[in-house]
Amino acid sequence: MSDYPEQVQRLQSAIQGLAGVRDVEFDIHSLEGLGEKELSLPGEIADLPHLALRRTKGGQKHEFLVAAEIWFLQNQEGWVALEFLAWWVRDLSRGGHHVQMRPLALPPVAYGTQLGRTLKFVIEFFFVNRNKSEEPILEKLGELAESLEENKVDYAKALKHPTQADYPDVESLRRSAENEDSAAQLELARRLEQGEGIEQDEAEAYRWTKKAAKHGHPDAKLGLGLCYSNGTGVKASHRKAFECYQESAEMGHPLAMGMLGYSYENGRGVGPDLAKAAEWYRQGAEAGEASCQAEFGECCEQGKGVPQDLEEALNWYRQALEQGFEDVVPAIERVEAAMRSEAAARPTRKKKPGGK
Length: 356
Description:
- Helix content is 55%, strand content 11%.
- It contains 16 helices and six strands.
- The strands form two sheets. It has a four-stranded antiparallel β-sheet, covered by helices on one side. Strands 4-5 form a two-stranded antiparallel ribbon.
- A hairpin with a 2-residue loop joins strand 4 and strand 5 (113-114).
């Protein structure tokens, strides 16, 4: 570690300080003059980011690559560290940095190592440095180290209490929920509401759903809306249900879009508005929600909030049926019959003499 410049040491320490990281090594490559021909050769450059370099037909003028090779522990801490660093790299890239993260691996069987034993990734930072001094690159690496250190502080609680992939028993589920894992909170609420492996308690189900919703979980927002709509564990309120559906729908939840459309169509928690109802049904339909496809099909069939269009109605009914929503079968038969009647009622054009 002492062989690295101070800024590189700082970035190395920031990465290695994550609980699931076993080791970190840095390397630097000059990419200038590296062409497509060299990329096809095995050896020292075999681990370079080939796709990125092939897109530019090789290295750019004055371009350098700083690579941080990272070995992760093969346990939950390792996966958490991997996810955290992958998010950090993605965020840097979105912010305009030329950086990527990718896996490195030996062949399936190499040097006595079987596939699955090496959990190794590399973070690659691309720099164009026209200065003969390496200080500009080192300065940027120092800034990256500071960025990672700040993010580790900001997300210290999440790193210490990560989401659990599954829950072997109710107690482990409850512990995860108490550690502010919104997915666990929502799952605990579901089990409490249904009495699945635990004594049924609708009030507790509502409480945990509300906790999950505070984290911005779209499923929880929808679930909370259903609690208010049905009076599950809380006094019913169509207005509060509407507000929850709206928040979830605006976050992109297709079923919430359907519930919002239903609210507008029936004036539940909001003034009736068929145009808005049809618009939310349409958005849910386009997002692939079968119930919304059925509802928007009905809007098109009956001209509710949109101009009547039997062909469009038939299209959405059929899409809903393809997903197994069999309630639309009578509607399909009804629309097809109406379209046949319309076709039969159209006057037939007589041919003019001479076939014209």
